[in-house]
Amino acid sequence: MSSTGTRTSEDAIIDITRQATPPALVEPGQYAVFHTPAGIQTVDLTGDRYRDTPQRKRGTVVVDNVESFATYYAKHSDPGTEVYANLDAGTVTAVLDAHTTGTPRWGEHRLILKMTPTKPWQRWTEKDRHPLPQVQFAEFLEDNLVDIDPDPIPAAVMLQVATTFQATTKGSFSSKTSLANGTRQLIFEEETTAGSGSGKQQIAVPEKFAIRVAPFADTDRYRIEARLRYRIEGSNLKLLFVLDRPEDALRDAVKDVVEQVKTATGATILIGTPA
């Protein structure tokens, strides 16, 4: 007879037998169950790391142009694949292993086209409505003249405006007048060291101009009008431009890319975000 907490000879025999049992060879892809002194132990050998190939495709691939999206889509899509476009986020997402009509699937293999704004688009939109000192504003125009549309103000005229502002750094702007042709004139009072007083000159400033920039690499250049404005703070001048609803051009560009995806893949595009 044995008592609680006391080992018997039978317990010792059982332990010796367990220790003498050789390890069993277990095939990958199965569960292994062992008797141990601490109880039953289960070993999961069903994971992908025990297999020659994964059980299913999974992961998210992110591309930044339509051609790459179409290439990956053609390789991995099937009749159950779903494609979603988020017009606000500027993304197209393909759930390559989406649910089918009669079979649930994992939805863990995805392809995302992330529309990244071009450098010209970023430069112009980042400076939109931001007053700049006259020299900085002039340098910005010079660096980006290639984006200026010739209608209504040619790039050469904008360059002339820019260089004029650069030249007038040692004086003060005091007033403005509006002209019938849609331009404005600033009165610039030049500082002099001679005793004859200061000189004045008028600088014509266009009321508006236009730019043509591509929001994304896969789109054409969109025309956006810009109003040219300035602020006189004391005797100092700051200039800025106000783009006319650039968000409309951006959304149109997203729609353009979505149509390109539809044409390149033949997929039906759902507007929204997948679960």
Q: How would you sum up this structure, described in words?
A:
Helix 2 packs parallel to helix 6. It is built from six helices and 14 strands. The chain folds into three domains: 41 residues, no CATH class; 77 residues; 126 residues, no CATH class. With 275 residues, the protein is an alpha+beta fold. The protein has a five-stranded mixed beta sheet with strand order 3-6-5-4-14, covered by helices on one side.
Secondary-structure topology with pairs:
Elements lengths: L8 H12 L10 E6 L2 E6 L14 E5 L2 H11 L5 E5 L4 E5 L13 E6 L4 H9 L4 E2 H10 L11 H13 L3 E8 L4 E8 L8 E8 L1 E6 L8 E12 L2 E8 L2 H20 L3 E3 L4
Parallel strand pairs: 3-6, 4-14
Antiparallel strand pairs: 1-2, 4-5, 5-6, 7-13, 8-9, 9-10, 11-12, 12-13
Helix pairs in contact: 2-6, 4-5
Going by helix content, strand content and strand pairing, the class is alpha+beta
Shape: elongated
* Low-confidence segments: 192-197
Largest sheet: 5 strands, mixed
Mean pLDDT: 82
User: In angstroms, what is the radius of gyration?
Assistant: 35 Å
The run of helices and strands is HEEEHEEEHEHHEEEEEEHE
Tally of separate helices? 6
- The portion of residues assigned to helices is 25-40%
When the domains are counted, the total is 3
